[in-house]
Amino acid sequence: GATIGILGGGQLGRMMAIAAAGYGLKACVYCPDAGSPAFEVAASHIQAAWDDEAALADFCARVDVITYEFENIPAATVAFLMARKPLAPGLKALETSQDRLAEKTFVASLGVGVAPFARVDGVADLEAALEKLGRPAILKTRRFGYDGKGQVRINDGDSAAAAFAAIGQAPAILEGFVPFDREISVISARSATGEFAAFDVCENVHRHHILDVTTVPAAVPGPLRQKAVAAARAIADALEYVGVLTVEMFVLADGETLLVNETAPRVHNSGHWTIEGARTSQFQQHVRAVCGWPLGDTSRLGRATMTNLIGDDIDAWRAILAEPGASLHLYGKAEARPGRKMGHVTRILPE
Ligand code: ATP
Ligand code: MG
Ligand code: MG
């Protein structure tokens, strides 16, 4: 069988490797971090730095296709790999999602709504942007942010200089604050032949800037769901996308207006419910797409909730084992830390 190369060794890579094995494929995981959760379930792994060319060449020799479980892979690493083996999703998707300014500019160019935004390269830019967009606003680093890291809210009376210093003076973007009613995500897949399939729209609630609970289907009107899926499809088509794509969106109080918050060129935490809750999981779907296989049936098997298990409360997890209808997933992370995703639980309820 073929071997899928996976860049990144976190829980997303772990669940991707498990799905690959279920289809009779091998996974080779490349990650700089010792003890990565995906290593122990993959057929093989390479623990080496992103700029270790000997290790990268070894990885390329072992795999037939390369994919990734996170988007912040250095450009030089991507160039080295792409010269040797096919990469899916491709470079355009990766580059667009790595930079919030490029991402918002691209999404807006498709006629899909985004929050008002402005480029911020210094305190003077930030002051001008605040004049234009008003307060509150959110200042975000253009690159490398996740779980709300690298962003700061600017309220009335807050100093622009202090906000810019707080995010470390990196190239940034200012976004107008969106008074959203709900947050949703669309997990979809596109194949190399342009086939497209979306899972039902997910509704996401965050706690301390980290995803807490996903509920499916999202409690939004049907036309809005269709609009959300159409936006995801427009993005996937324009990127000539291959693989699973996640698009996070805000729903405004009018129940009609949708604004794209960000995209992730990969499987996503808000799609974990698909393992038990859909006929094809997001991980299986991703494997199918990157291998050039037909996409799977995305239909739901019930209503689903997915709750992240964060931190170190191991005793609470034990109770889940006894709960009918609950499926426990633990990622095998050796050390629990506050804010660290240790596992999740999916509950499937009848329609
Ligand atoms: P993730 O872990 O999803 O990758 P991230 O660090 O990349 O998160 P965002 O998704 O941009 O950050 O923002 C995190 C959360 O902050 C959003 O889910 C939303 O709740 C809130 N947020 C972000 N941007 C805005 C905005 N312009 N207006 C209102 N709330 C926002
Ligand atoms: Mg993000
Ligand atoms: Mg986000």
From TrEMBL:
Keywords: ATP-binding, Ligase, Nucleotide-binding, Purine biosynthesis. GO terms for cellular component: cytosol. The keyword Lyase does not apply. ATP binds at residues 100, 140, 145-151, 175-178, 183, 206, 261-262. It comes from the Bacteria. It is an enzyme of class 6 (ligase). This is N5-carboxyaminoimidazole ribonucleotide synthase. Pathway: Purine metabolism; IMP biosynthesis via de novo pathway; 5-amino-1-(5-phospho-D-ribosyl)imidazole-4-carboxylate from 5-amino-1-(5-phospho-D-ribosyl)imidazole (N5-CAIR route): step 1/2. It catalyses: 5-amino-1-(5-phospho-beta-D-ribosyl)imidazole + hydrogencarbonate + ATP = 5-carboxyamino-1-(5-phospho-D-ribosyl)imidazole + ADP + phosphate + 2 H(+). Homodimer. GO terms for biological process: 'de novo' IMP biosynthetic process. Its EC number is 6.3.4.18. One of its GO terms (molecular function) is phosphoribosylaminoimidazole carboxylase activity. InterPro entries: ATP-grasp, ATP-grasp_carboxylate-amine, ATP_grasp_subdomain_1, PreATP-grasp_dom_sf, PurK, PurK_C, PurT/PurK_preATP-grasp, Rudment_hybrid_motif. Coiled coil: none annotated. Catalyzes the ATP-dependent conversion of 5-aminoimidazole ribonucleotide (AIR) and HCO(3)- to N5-carboxyaminoimidazole ribonucleotide (N5-CAIR). Residues 104-291 form the ATP-grasp domain. Belongs to the PurK/PurT family.
